[in-house]
Amino acid sequence: MSTVIDVEHLNFSFGSGALTQPVLKDITLSIRKGEIVLITGPSGSGKTTFLTIIGGLRQAFHGSVKVLDQQFINSSEQVKVSVRQQIGYIFQQHNLLKSLTALQNVSMTLEMSNGLTEQQRRDRSAEALIAVGLGDRLDYKPGQLSGGQLQRVSIARALVGQPKIILADEPTASLDKQSGYEAVSLLKRLAKESQTAILLVTHDYRILDIADRVVELEDGVIKSV
Amino acid sequence: MDKLTWFYFPARLAWRQLMFDRSKLVAAICGVLFACVLVFMQLGFKDSLYASAASAPVKLSGDLFLMHKQSEAMWRPIQFKRSELMRVLGNPAVAEAYPLYLGLAPFKNIKTQVKRTLMVYGFDPDSLIFNVDEIRNKRDELRLKDTVLFDEYSRPEFGPMRSLLETGRNVTEINDYKVNIVGLFRLGVSFAADGNVVTSDLNFMRIFPRRNLSEIDMGVIKLHPGAPIQQVEAELKNQLNEFVNIFSYEELLKYEKDYWANTAPIGFIFGFGTVMGWVVGLVIVYQILFTDIANHRNEFATLKAMGYEHGYFVRLVFASAFFLAVLGFIPGYVLSLGLYHLAESQMYMPMPMLWSKMITVFLFILSMCVMAGLLAIRKLKDANPADMF
């Protein structure tokens, strides 16, 4: 399996009837295993909507969206939930659970899957945190960490389940230039090691150079690849 | 996911979230505690009411009891003819039949001169119809003119009788009639009367000059040892006039209890108080769970995006509800224990903390929290992972 995401002729619109607002028009895009693809474009170009459809968080009806060989168009919630468990998410805000330590937050990804003991979950979560350079912050809660550190925890959380795909939405938006660049470089390095594909939405032009491919979206149409 | 982790993981997260925000946790526990104490006290008063209502009949020693059919309860009896009671002696199984005279009368506090109503029991001192040693041992004194025994468990408003008797001040008035208190016994107050006094049937007529010996309030019947009580009861029911009720011991207790539970509005009032405690607690717990979900909306949406199912969050909310129930019940139980003790020592009401009551209240509180959880889970729909991007 070399193609992990395969989108063909995807159309999507908000609203209905006279108020129908087309957001995505005839999108065709495929992403191979281990490939890093950036989607850029102005606000309202539909790039975040595209990401939520790929992530199985929004139901699309027209075209074809195959993620890890599962068809998302007109699919059941169950199919999407099972695919979501194989995807790592990184959000604009870190969205960590405030009441849990960094280690416990990362473990949340592993608690969905069977067959691991508590100790194995702890070990793997700790490894993931060490890989993002937070080996000395395992038992810190989100309130005690800086913005860059929080984003690195969420990178660890996304990667610890060894997903085939990582979806990231503006991961650098709440970070300054240096910690933002460090975060995405780290993401790139770890993803390349594990052959994980990354689909990253951003309009931060400072990080374009990490991509294998940049897709520019404007008014719901792919402008250049 | 196996069965253990199916519930353990959401429960653990619920626990961690509860423990994270201590001030909110304390507020939540206070809410449950409040409901818990309210329910404990209402049920305690109710049971105490039933127990004390039956305190007088409990100490009566007899196999069968006669009351006028129009008597609602022992504390407001309708008189019937003594001759009606004596007819039961025609049955060969009956050994003895004794009249009991009952009356409410004002009793003057020896110290403060304030009058307060208590219950006066009049009976033949030789009949031994009260199963109380202090009364049986004083039957010689009770035979004298104008003598009474005073219930030590009466409310303190009647005066510190024991110390008064020790200093020789034993003369007071009942129903404006001068009597001598010749001793103490222990029976207990009820909702009908704050105190009790026993005296001989003759002295009873002196205290209540309008009463006469042939108009009795209750009949106490003793059978020969080994007589079949139920069979004799049925026989007597046929022989006696229809204006009297005949009760066995258990039936008398039930009759008294049912009066307070149903006829008097008191049973309803405490039942209503219990339900209100439940509702107030429900609203508090619901509010807490609801705002908790609202505050964690982003976190839940994130977890949903990661692949957590809706059921996980439902279990999480119910686990929170369960923890709140337990955490609120424990201090609520301890506090209620103290209040029960206070009621027993200060108000002379029998309020034992029974296992059955403890379990009842816990199930009550648990049902309250589960109900609050059921109402709150609708809020989970707000956690939509598509809004997270």
Topology:
The complex is a heterodimer of chains A (about 220) and B (about 400).
Chain A: E1 3-14, E2 21-32, E3 36-40, H1 47-54, E4 62-67, E5 70-71, H2 77-84, E6 87-90, H3 102-110, H4 118-131, H5 147-160, E7 165-169, H6 177-193, E8 197-201, E9 213-218, E10 221-224
Parallel strand pairs in A: 3-8, 3-9, 6-7, 7-8
Antiparallel strand pairs in A: 1-2, 1-4, 4-5, 9-10
Helix pairs in contact in A: 3-4, 3-5, 4-5, 5-6
Chain B: H1 3-20, H2 22-53, H3 55-58, E1 64-68, E2 80-81, H4 82-86, E3 94-108, E4 115-123, H5 133-137, H6 139-142, E5 147-151, H7 161-166, E6 171-174, E7 177-185, E8 196-200, H8 201-207, E9 215-216, E10 218-223, H9 229-239, E11 244-248, H10 249-263, H11 266-295, H12 297-306, H13 310-346, H14 355-376
Parallel strand pairs in B: 4-8, 5-7
Antiparallel strand pairs in B: 1-10, 1-11, 2-9, 3-4, 3-10, 5-8, 6-7
Helix pairs in contact in B: 1-13, 2-10, 2-11, 2-13, 2-14, 11-14, 13-14
What does this structure look like?
The complex is a heterodimer of chains A (225) and B (389). Helix content of chain A is 31%, strand content 27%. With 225 residues, chain A is an alpha/beta fold. Chain A has a domain at 1-86 and 165-174 and 197-225: Rossmann fold, CATH 3.40.50.300. In chain A, the strands form two sheets. In chain A, strands 6-7-8-3-9-10 form a six-stranded mixed beta sheet, with helices on both faces. In chain A, strands 2-1-4-5 form a four-stranded antiparallel beta sheet, with helices on one face. In chain A, strand 9 (213-218) and strand 10 form a beta hairpin. Chain A is globular and about 55 Å long. The model of chain A has no long low-confidence stretch (mean pLDDT 87). With 389 residues, chain B is of the alpha+beta class. Chain B has 14 helices and eleven strands. Chain B has helices spanning 3-20, 22-53, 55-58, 82-86, 133-137, 139-142, 161-166, 201-207, 229-239, 249-263, 266-295, 297-306, 310-346, 355-376; strands spanning 64-68, 80-81, 94-108, 115-123, 147-151, 171-174, 177-185, 196-200, 215-216, 218-223, 244-248. Chain B has a nine-stranded mixed beta sheet. In chain B, helix 1 (3-20) crosses helix 13 (310-346) and helix 2 (22-53) crosses helix 13 (310-346). Chain B is elongated, with a radius of gyration of 29 Å. The two termini of chain B are 28 Å apart. The model of chain B has no long low-confidence stretch (mean pLDDT 89). Chain A binds chain B through residues 48, 51-52, 55, 57-58, 81-82, 84-87, 89, 91-93, 95-100, 104, 108-109, 111-112, 114, 169, 201, and chain B through 1-2, 5, 9, 13, 16-17, 19-21, 296, 298-299, 301-303, 305-309, 385-386, 388-389.
